[in-house]
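Quick log. Single chain, no ligands specified.
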Amino acid sequence: MRALTRERRAFTAAALAAATAVLVGAAGLVAGGSGNARAAGGAVVLDEGEVDFTPRLADGKLELQIDDRSGDTTVVREPSQVVLHAPASSLQYTPDPVATALGTTNMDSWQLGGWEAENIFAPEPGWKGSEAGGDTEVRLSGYEGPGDFGMAMYTREMDNVNAPAIPYLGSVASVQHTFTLSVGEERLRPIWQFTAEGVYRLTFTVTSGGSSDTETLAVVVGDDVDPADALPGDGSTPTASPTDSPTGSATPSPSLTAPAAHVIAEGHVDLAARPTDGDLEFQIKEGTELNHKWYEPGEVVMHVRPAAKRKIPEGYGFLGTPGDAVWWLPLQQNAGIVWPGWNTTEYAKADLDGRVSFRLDSVQGPGNIAMFHNNAMGVPVVSLNSGDGLPDTHTLGAGTHSHFDWVFSAEGVYRTTFTVSATLADGTKVSDTETIAWVVGDDTDPSTVTPGEGDEPTATPTATPSASQAPTATASPSASASDSPSASAPATDPGSGSSGIGGSSSTGGSGSSGTSATGGLASTGAQVGVIAGIAVAALLVGGGAVSFVRRRRTAQ
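-> predicted structure:
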């Protein structure tokens, strides 16, 4: 078997697309198991919880099986009968040592078991070696996929001492294709990295005590392909006849009466105060300073994609119960989701008597909205929170651009009404009140939602947080944004007087090894894929810009 290299890969993406196009996804529940949905060919989709790949002796023969602990009881499954799903929310920061060890991109990639594993709803794959009767050789003996795959160990503790990542397996020719799983290993948890969305097929061969087993695992990465439509194993499972497909399953044509809204689902946007003919206008700026468009709030629907789904961390009781699901737009820009900020850069300090006030008057929707940042001690400082009553206000000085963490507590359609006001240098008071429509999750098609005001029902606000849950009210901004939402804070220019009512802002500023393979890897054909990551663009505003850049460390 020859080693798989980037140059020798065949282009089979079209074949994969053709294969998945004819599949029939049968939705249902797994009897007696974890409750995972059924996929094409009768497979089970594993998209959350702990799953261990376990070589075990059965009647004297080694078998590679999956211990699925995503439900109340452990269910043993065959790899060829499941589809592992790395959801859109698994797209996250790639530490440079991981990219170096696996010979892959250091742009954001889809990771299972990565640094954000505890905060996202995704599978948590591990390897269990204690049931094989001895040490087990694990080999990546076959591979197919739209991008690169690899497994490497890298923890925050390793990062703290600038240690290199430890590679285990990889599809790149320079990375080893085998590792030894110790019989004493109860749960080995390397990071699984994928560099592109699509369907992967990973063939593992396990060998121990002279006995071997080879299994192929199907992995769906991202949301470009519905995991319920992916065939398990090597893809040879027969599919249902087209006559078995539900009637009327074709995509319906858009309604002729659908509202004409501009949907913003990813990239940089600012909620901005702008001077116009002696008055103030509240508008939405989409794009960067050098390439942007302006929209009225009543023209726009903001879409918070499913990739923003996270678990509430400990210490964020004002958001709800730790571990519960929320939809989180972090202070730093993440590829594939919208990045909302605030902007008063079209006002000079000499234009205003005081600061610009952004008052959240009301929230209409299925849950609560909170906006906050973390201070230097990691304590959340809340600016806006519909869960403990409205109105809430935060203020910004002139010439300011800032970002915060935004969190939505439930899927559905929200409508936020803001009044933006200021006092001009001559004493004239100016203001504008506008409503912004948001669609959170994928239960509602954002293209069908009317922008601006609407008549959806509103959830009852949660009770005011207890004293033990209430966040600190005084901002103490940190010097830089960190890697995760649980430790983020907007950068602040102390000279701007940026501490507003429950908020903080930013203004001005000047800017924004693997071991050798022990065997060949069979090439089943795969298209090379390099993730099209979205870099944080410099926001060149007036005399400067604020740029939030995630730290990347190069292995020494």
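The CA atoms of residues 177 and 519 lie 7 Å apart.
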